[in-house]
Amino acid sequence: EVQLQASGGGLVQPGGSLRLSCAASGFTFGSTHMSWVRQAPGKGPERVSAILNNSGATYYADSVKGRFTISRDNAKKTLYLQMNSLKPEDTAVYYCAADWYGTNRRGQGTQVTVSS
Fold it and tell me: Are the C-beta atoms of 99 and 35 separated by less than 8 Å?
């Protein structure tokens, strides 16, 4: 069974940084493309970023390009999202997903709140 546990969220001021982590188990992490999806209150899910299984290519939504960096450690079965220059509109619950398109979302996610 695919299990994904996102962590690292919190309350941060505009312009601040956070690093999210996603611990994976129950599947072959090193063979699986991964992604981050966020959902703000009252809005639909938005795929924020994705990374190939071998880190050979990445995807970023225009809304986060240049501010967020996705990475992974296949030995640790962990996915990361470094978020810099955070804006209030980045406030959302962030989930990790075990696929490129963000559809295989699991777990409860981690709350990110950007506010002064």
Answer: yes
CA–CA separation, 86 and 112 (whole Å): 10
Q: Is 32 exposed, middle or buried (0-12, 13-18, 19+ CB in 10 A)?
A: buried
Q: Which amino acid is at 86?
A: L
Could you tell me if 98 and 32 are in contact, meaning their C-beta atoms sit under 8 angstroms apart? yes
User: Does residue 104 sit in helix, strand or coil?
Assistant: coil
- Per-residue model confidence as pLDDT tens for the chain (116 residues): 999 999 999 999 999 999 999 999 999 999 999 999 999 999 999 999 999 988 889 999 999 999 999 999 999 999 999 999 999 999 999 999 999 999 999 888 999 999 99
Residue 115 neighbours by CB distance under 10 Å: 10
Sign of CA dihedral 54, 74, 107, 64: negative
The β-bridge relationship of strands 92-97 and 34-39 is: antiparallel
Find the Cα–Cα–Cα–Cα dihedral 54, 46, 90, 9, rounded to 10°.
-60
